[in-house]
Design goal:
This protein is α+β, with helices and mostly antiparallel strands and 430 residues long. It has helices at 65-82, 90-103, 117-127, 146-161, 173-183, 188-198, 206-209, 242-246, 271-286, 310-316, 349-354, 392-396; strands at residues 226-230, 237-241, 263-266, 291-298, 307-308, 321-335, 339-341, 361-368, 387-391, 399-401, 416-418, 421-426. The chain has one domain (65-426): Cathepsin B, Chain A. The protein has twelve helices and twelve strands. Strands 3, 4, 5, 6, 7, 8, 9 and 12 form an eight-stranded mixed β-sheet that branches. It has a two-stranded antiparallel sheet with strand order 1-2. A two-stranded antiparallel ribbon has the order 10-11. It is globular.
């Protein structure tokens, strides 16, 4: 089984609230953080046997959990390939997500912060990735981006009463860029570098204008970003690229295609198929492959020791809830003939093979989250700061599904149910 990062540390501040997502779109919403300060800290170290080579924990300030999951995923793939940790910018991808909403006429009264894996993959293909220091320099070492929150407020104000209020103005891509640059408080140097690569009105994108040339200016094409990936045909790991991992897709909703391309796999409804699904996740974690998962959150299930507990939710009743996207890291299981394989402890190859038995009982899945290092207002005994344990009984549910995102004033309105586990993003061969 995958082994925890026993020495994972970063600045431990009051973390921001969860970004909640809708099951179909990955739409996230977020409560304002209780403390906007940020601290520096060390990265992570890994056990020699099996562990996902995670990067440092971050904390979101708006509803873009899916982009935090995506950057955690690609940073882990890169770290496994290079043995070096990079801090890629969630703000960069968020900026372009907003730009495309506006430029493609999809913006409503407010910017939509939600999305999903396929949308993220398309953004990376068109705009690449960049390091945080090359986009929001002031947040190069920050655990949380307060700039995202202020930019969202400014962009929504522009839509309501500013330059983007007029639908005609929203067809001017240069005007959109200008408003977004102002909302994000980009300095002249950063704007000039973006213009040099994409043009003032985004006349160029990486997938069309930079197929054979590098863009420079701090913009990294997916093909230039190393990643450790498994060749499903040979069973061997190779040094590939992020472009291989995201594959190609005709739209933000279409499956990704390619030899190494990751894709969303929905959680099945029957017990036999679910065990097969879990085996796929286990095998990926055994191979130190980061797996993004989408799941439904109900905060009344969150315990002080950082578990999402079905039993606690049943005793407390439904609370504030919505969807979320995180990166799987480890699991704990009851394995026939062995007993409990504990998360965070070394496991032999034989134990991991036996853990794939049909009769293995998953106890919980441990995930790297995007809520920051510590939340003493919600938990205080996490096994690893910034990680959560999702109990199997919670993920299987079903749990009550309530309309809206706030805790229901009247629980009687929660008449529907939902299975919390939505899907996992897996590569071929698992």
């Amino acid at each position: 089984m995958a082994i925890d990062l026993l020495k994972l540390t970063r600045g431990l501040t009051i973390a921001s609230m969860l970004a909640l997502a809708g099951a179909a779109t990955g739409a996230c919403s977020s409560e304002a953080p209780s403390d906007a300060s940020t601290d520096d800290g060390a990265g992570s170290s890994t056990d020699d046997i099996t562990s996902v080579n995670q990067s440092a924990v971050k904390r979101q300030s708006i509803g873009n959990c899916w982009l935090y999951a995506t950057t955690s995923w690609l940073e882990a793939l890169n770290k496994a390939a290079t043995n070096a940790e990079v801090n890629t910018s969630e703000s960069w991808l968020t900026y372009w997500h907003w730009y495309e909403q506006l430029a493609n006429g999809r913006a409503g009264a407010e910017i939509e912060t939600g999305g999903g894996w396929e949308t993220a993959a398309g953004l990376i293909a068109r705009y690449g990735v960049t390091l945080e220091k090359d986009f929001i320099k002031a947040e190069a070492e920050s655990e949380m981006s307060s700039r995202q929150s202020s930019a969202l407020n400014a962009a929504n104000l522009s839509l309501k009463s500013g330059a983007l209020k007029d639908a005609v103005a929203r067809r001017d891509k240069k005007a959109i860029r200008k408003e977004l640059d102002a909302a994000w408080q980009l300095d002249a140097e950063t704007t000039a570098r973006i213009n040099a690569v994409f043009g003032e009105g985004v006349e160029k994108t990486l997938d069309r204008a930079y197929v054979t040339t590098t863009p420079g200016n701090g913009v990294i094409r997916a093909i230039d970003f190393p990643a450790r990936l498994k060749d499903a045909a040979s069973g061997q790991f190779v040094k590939a690229t992020l472009a291989d991992a995201i594959g190609t897709g005709a739209s933000s909703w279409s499956p990704r295609e390619g030899k190494f391309a990751f894709n969303s796999v929905s959680y099945p409804s029957d017990a036999v198929a679910r065990r097969g699904f879990w085996k796929r996740v286990q095998k990926a974690l055994h191979d130190e492959v980061p797996v993004m998962i989408s799941w439904k959150v109900d905060f009344n299930a969150l315990t002080t020791d950082s578990h999402f507990s079905f039993e606690q939710l049943q005793s407390r009743g439904p609370g504030r809830h919505g969807g979320h996207m995180t990166v799987a890291h480890d699991y704990q299981a009851d394995v026939p003939g062995i007993g409990i394989l504990k998360a965070g402890e070394p496991a032999t190859k034989e134990q991991m093979e036996k853990a794939l038995s049909d009769d293995t009982k998953i106890i919980f899945l441990r995930v790297k989250n995007s809520w920051g290092g510590i939340r003493p207002d919600r938990w205080n005994q996490a096994a690893i700061p910034g990680y959560h344990d999702l109990d199997y009984t919670y993920l299987n549910g079903p749990i009550k599904d309530c309309p809206g995102e706030d805790a229901p004033a009247d629980p009687s309105v929660c008449t529907g149910t939902v299975v919390p586990f939505g899907d996992a993003v897996l590569p071929p061969g698992y």
